[in-house]
């Protein structure tokens, strides 16, 4: 009888040891993620991105293509306004395509290596690897990491929670948080296809611009006719700052609105209706492309500019840091409120 009890206890002990051995450590998971990135030839992914930095949540559909070593195609589509914007990287450089305006903007940039990218698998893995203080949790089906971000405005968005599937290490979700742990940017992946194949022209600027413009023809016809919807930064972005003056100037393109803000910091916000190019046009820009969540902007030392919903915006300031320029720009969207 004692022998049977002993064998039973021994069997249970072996089972417990084997179960413990089957659970990967944080180091094991990071190593597996890194190995997957190193062997990857490319991928396609679909995701929903929700931005919470304005007065109302803004939801975007995101289609991501990546082909090793440095080809990218990220298509951002506003679910409500039926407009899209595309970030494209090929051997010629980095391009931001805005089909509704029939324009593409070219940058000499090392995007996406220059900061965290919440919808790029290899960027998420890089952030996990580079944070020695990353927190790790394993559930039945997922691996969850909490890491530092690598944004130009990482004081405003210092943390992110990244969830990977245990089954194939595919990204499941990314929550980018402010210092109070409020989720300001949420990316939820619905489909990830590793080692995907691509057509030869998959990352060609003209091909993508042509196909995207065809989808946007109804929108293009309306952009020039729409009245300018004047937008304001959110109250949170204006802590210690107030609107000092707002004036309207009539130009050849319509109304231009110039707002001057003052207080602890000063800056000027200019907005006007964008014009649709009669023929597809590529414009070279100085500065860096920066992801604002709802659109891609152009960042310089003292200004940030972007297009959104058929309008052009620019914030200029001698006082605001690049981090603060991005932070204010992120909130100039949604409803027109002061």
Explain what the structure shows:
By secondary structure, the protein is an alpha+beta fold. It is 22% helix and 40% strand. It has five helices and 19 strands. Helix 2 packs antiparallel against helix 3. The strands form two sheets. A twelve-stranded mixed β-sheet has the order 7-8-9-10-11-1-2-3-4-5-6-15, with helices on both faces. It has a seven-stranded antiparallel β-sheet with strand order 12-13-14-19-18-17-16, with helices on one face.
Short key terms for the protein model shown above:
single chain; 338 residues; alpha+beta; 12-stranded mixed sheet; 7-stranded antiparallel sheet; 5 helices; 40% strand; globular
Summing up helix and strand content along with how strands pair, one would put the structural category as: alpha+beta
> What's the rounded overall pLDDT mean?
87
| Quaternary structure state of the chains depicted | single chain
Portion of residues within helices: 10-25%
What is the element string, with H for helices and E for strands? HHEEEEEEHEEEEEHEEEEEEEEH
Q: Report the principal-axis shape.
A: globular
Outline of the structure:
The protein has 338 residues and is an alpha+beta fold.
Give the helix/strand layout:
Layout: H1 2-22, H2 26-39, E1 42-51, E2 58-67, E3 71-78, E4 84-90, E5 93-98, E6 103-107, H3 121-130, E7 135-138, E8 142-148, E9 159-165, E10 171-177, E11 183-194, H4 205-223, E12 241-251, E13 254-263, E14 267-273, E15 281-284, E16 288-291, E17 296-299, E18 303-308, E19 311-316, H5 322-331
Parallel strand pairs: 6-15
Antiparallel strand pairs: 1-2, 1-11, 2-3, 3-4, 4-5, 5-6, 7-8, 8-9, 9-10, 10-11, 12-13, 13-14, 14-19, 16-17, 17-18, 18-19
Helix pairs in contact: 2-3
